[in-house]
């Protein structure tokens, strides 16, 4: 095998002049985490709204919710990324488009928005499934108590539904985290992009990718541990 | 690190030494790429999407270009050397970022495009006689009025990932404290698109590629190339696998024969002074003095000072 | 903007988009799904086998694949497969693997981890009594798996397997990062060559949507039918 291993490469200065290759990878890791968190906040908010809409008695709300989920689930993420980044500024009025293009850190904002809307469709499905998994009696009990629809959701249905869907939400969170790597195609310098540029600058392909792999595995472990901690701390005593 | 340098030095010495002694390679015991080509009856050429006019896709999405023509000559020489009746020439797309690993891992045998031959890359791959010389500059919209690298201060620029140019602009950014945001693009077309759509103020690349991209854009007059270069003119070479002296000997002999014959000049003129597909643009780049010298006396040196 | 929407750029490139691009995408999807389901089933059986070493290897493999982004895995395998090939065949030099086989291996290995999770649930959904009955009839492990457990598991999980295949169909667009000409790659090459981004990317989105929407609609109908029979 004619490959020169060189694990010391991480401590050599990168051509960007701001530190070593290890620093370069860590800055990528930071972008990955920040992008994942920001887009998750968006996805969780929108996803919850859409998910709730799909369980409401209103036909219109149902239709809007369904349309949203179908639209965002049936187009590949990469294509959505291009739509947000390349197509949106062209179809907006010109002055808006120019403003959008000249935003500093445009790949980051685009990545967050794109992932936010994309992941929201998946969160919505989980929220809907969670609400539908609850016994019908709970909704009726809410009505019997004199709650409005909003109150029923706020005090009865959602607190229970979120507890049920915590495990699938965790895996959606992890999917969202992994999907941040797709934003490298629009120039976001996240972990995979950094590993790739390290490979290009240093030619140490496998060291760079091994390091990225280990970092991804570590974040996954941290998230899973945190999720099980949350699960235990919010569990309703006596349930299940 | 020290160990690696020594080994590479030794390997380089071997390659150079062997190419002097072994050309033309004996037909006895085949090794490396030649053996592979003989056994499989096929050679694989790596081509680029948008390195106009070196290696790019024409109107029918078929790879064509100056470097592709050179590579077909090398392939012919390999076929003759191995006395094969039939040899398949396979094509595989590469990007700036994937070309070096793909040469190393055997996916492609020849990389035909616009790959700068420098001392650093010599550690990963080897190059045959240089086929072009070019310096790093940038292209920007004319109305932005950007002429020198200092004009770019604080702006967003784009370059192609995996190129020497993105490395140079990164280094210059730190050294000259330009405060640039540097976006990496997958290939030259995507990078140019960033300037075209206003996502980046400038695209930093080899000037010849910038000229061809601007010329083939929808509005060639809207773009201007910077006046000051970021580097000395650097050589482009066809990239080959490292430590494969017999194969390099064949490729060197084939390119030398091509460049020193009138055919070499004709090939150059075909791609640089005449209209080229798909839209019939003309690069209008007659052969420079340095290029004429290179064709008269072909060299594979990675050192810009050698030209 | 939509006033100067140019449909001719789409129509004049249709043969390239579909014969070169879509054929690559569909071929890759179909073959990777087929091989991925077979490999995934084997991995699921390994995980449920109870054999100490095997069980753990399978688990680590699945967890590792599931914690990595596909883009990173695509890069890994594109560069690594030739070395693995050399190791397997004992050749001193990396063996040559073309772009399509390399992508196929990548997607097969990656999706197998996801398919294995589905098949594991499928196998576990078959009541223990059935395997017990199979052993009582004198069947060995493989006989009871092939004749009793897997056909039912496969049938129960068919909608999920197909849904995962639709995800795989969407995921193949990521070979864009290697400049391969799948459907999206073809669309973006035309878009960049002709400077017609808006048209090509919107068209790509519409095509992907039409295919995936139809496919998931059919899967839902199938799901309803399977559910009734069960």
Q: Which protein chains are joined by the largest interface, and how many residues does each one contribute?
A: A-C, 39 and 37 residues
Question: C-alpha Rg of chain A, in Å?
Answer: 22 Å
**Biggest β-sheet of chain A: count, sense, barrel?**
none
**Quick one: biggest sheet of chain C?**
none
Shape designation of chain C: flat
- End-to-end separation of chain C in angstroms reads 53 Å
Shape of chain A: flat
- Class derived from helix and strand content of chain C: mainly alpha
- Cα(first) to Cα(last) distance of chain A is 55 Å
Topology as H/E string of chain A? HHHHHHHHHH
Number of strands of chain C: 0
What class do helices, strands and sheet pairing of chain A give? mainly alpha
Percent of residues in β-strands of chain C: under 5%
Count of alpha and pi helical runs of chain A: 10
Task: Explain what the structure shows.
The complex is a heterotrimer of chains A (240), B (307) and C (230). With 240 residues, chain A is mainly α. Chain A is 75% helix and 0% strand. Chain A has ten helices and no strands. In chain A, helix 3 (77-91) packs across helix 5 (106-133). Chain A is flat. Chain B folds into two domains: 32-133 and 234-306, D-Maltodextrin-Binding Protein, domain 2, CATH 3.40.190; 136-225, D-Maltodextrin-Binding Protein, domain 2 (3-Layer(aba) Sandwich), CATH 3.40.190.10. In chain B, the strands form four sheets. In chain B, strands 1, 5, 6, 7, 8 and 14 form a six-stranded mixed sheet that branches. Chain B has a five-stranded mixed sheet with strand order 11-10-12-9-13, with helices on both faces. In chain B, strand 15 and strand 16 (281-282) form a beta hairpin. The radius of gyration of chain B is 19 Å and the shape is globular. Chain B starts with a helix and ends in an 11-residue tail after the last helix. Chain C is an all-alpha fold and 230 residues long. Helix content of chain C is 81%, strand content 0%. Chain C has nine helices and no strands. Chain C is flat, with a radius of gyration of 21 Å. Chains in contact: A-B, A-C, B-C.
């Amino acid at each position: 095998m004619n490959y020169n291993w060189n694990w010391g490469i991480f401590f050599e200065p990168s051509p960007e002049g701001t530190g070593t290759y290890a620093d370069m990878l860590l800055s990528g890791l930071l972008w990955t985490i920040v992008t994942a968190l920001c887009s998750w906040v968006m996805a969780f908010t929108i996803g919850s709204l859409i998910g709730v809409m799909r369980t409401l008695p209103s036909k219109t709300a149902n239709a809007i919710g369904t349309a949203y989920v179908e639209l965002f689930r049936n187009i590949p993420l990469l294509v959505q990324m291009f739509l947000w980044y390349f197509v949106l500024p062209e179809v907006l009025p010109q002055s808006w488009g120019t403003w959008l293009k000249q935003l500093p850190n445009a790949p980051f904002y685009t990545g967050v928005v794109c992932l936010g809307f994309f992941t929201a469709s998946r969160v919505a499905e989980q929220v809907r499934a969670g609400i539908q998994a609850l016994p019908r009696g709970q909704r009726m009990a809410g009505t019997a108590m004199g709650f409005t629809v909003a109150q029923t959701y706020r005090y009865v249905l959602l607190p229970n539904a979120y507890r049920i869907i915590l495990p699938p939400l965790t895996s959606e969170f992890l999917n969202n985290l992994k999907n941040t790597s797709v934003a490298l195609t629009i120039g976001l310098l996240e972990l995979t992009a950094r590993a790739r540029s390290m490979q290009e600058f240093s030619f140490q392909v496998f060291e760079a990718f091994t390091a990225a792999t280990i970092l991804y595995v570590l974040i996954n472990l941290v998230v899973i541990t945190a999720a099980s901690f949350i699960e235990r701390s919010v569990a309703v005593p006596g349930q299940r | 690190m020290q160990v690696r340098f020594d080994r590479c030095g030794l390997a380089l010495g071997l390659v150079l030494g062997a190419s002097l002694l072994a050309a033309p390679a004996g037909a006895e015991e085949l090794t490396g790429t030649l053996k592979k080509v003989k056994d499989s009856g096929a050679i694989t050429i790596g081509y680029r999407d948008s390195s106009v006019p070196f290696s790019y896709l024409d109107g029918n999405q078929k790879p064509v270009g100056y470097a592709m023509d050179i590579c077909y000559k090398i392939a012919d020489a390999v076929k003759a050397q191995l006395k094969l009746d039939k040899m398949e020439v396979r094509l595989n797309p590469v990007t700036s970022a994937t070309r070096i690993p793909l040469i190393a891992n055997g996916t492609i045998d020849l990389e035909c495009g616009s790959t700068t031959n420098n001392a650093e890359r010599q550690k990963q791959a080897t190059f045959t006689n240089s086929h072009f010389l070019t310096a790093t500059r940038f292209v920007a919209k004319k109305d932005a009025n950007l002429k020198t690298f200092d004009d770019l201060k604080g702006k967003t620029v784009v370059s192609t990932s995996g190129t020497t140019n993105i490395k140079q602009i990164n280094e210059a950014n730190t050294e000259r404290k330009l405060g640039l945001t540097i976006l990496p693009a997958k290939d030259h077309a995507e990078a140019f698109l960033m300037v075209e759509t206003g996502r980046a103020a400038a695209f930093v690349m080899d000037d010849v590629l910038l000229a061809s991209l601007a010329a083939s854009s929808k509005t060639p007059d809207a773009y201007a190339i910077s006046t000051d270069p970021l580097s000395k003119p650097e050589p482009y070479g066809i990239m080959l696998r490292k430590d494969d002296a017999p194969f390099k000997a064949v490729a060197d002999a084939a390119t030398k024969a091509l460049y020193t014959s009138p055919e070499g000049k004709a090939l150059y003129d075909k791609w640089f002074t005449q209209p080229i597909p798909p839209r019939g643009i003309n690069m209008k780049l007659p052969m420079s003095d340095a290029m004429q010298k290179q064709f008269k006396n072909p060299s594979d040196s990675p050192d810009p000072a050698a030209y | 903007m939509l006033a100067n929407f140019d449909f001719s750029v789409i129509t004049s490139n249709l043969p390239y988009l579909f014969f070169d691009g879509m054929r690559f995408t569909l071929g890759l999807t179909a073959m990777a799904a087929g091989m991925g389901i077979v490999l995934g089933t084997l991995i699921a059986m390994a995980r449920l086998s109870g054999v100490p070493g095997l069980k753990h290897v399978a688990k680590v493999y699945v967890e590792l694949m599931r914690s990595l982004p596909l883009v990173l895995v695509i890069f890994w395998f594109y560069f690594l497969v030739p070395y693995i090939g050399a190791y397997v065949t004992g050749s001193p030099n990396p063996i040559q693997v073309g772009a399509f086989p390399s992508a196929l291996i990548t997607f097969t290995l990656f999706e197998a981890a996801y398919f294995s999770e589905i098949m594991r649930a499928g196998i576990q959904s078959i009541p223990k009594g059935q395997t017990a009955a199979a052993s009582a009839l004198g069947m060995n492990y493989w006989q009871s798996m092939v004749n009793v457990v897997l056909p039912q598991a496969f049938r129960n999980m068919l909608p999920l397997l197909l849904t995962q295949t639709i995800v795989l169909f969407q995921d193949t667009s990521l070979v864009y990062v290697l400049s391969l000409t799948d459907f999206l790659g073809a669309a973006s090459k035309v878009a960049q060559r002709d400077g017609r981004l808006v048209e090509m990317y919107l068209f790509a989105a519409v095509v992907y949507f039409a295919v995936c929407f139809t496919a998931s609609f059919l899967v839902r109908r199938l799901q309803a039918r399977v559910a009734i029979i069960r």
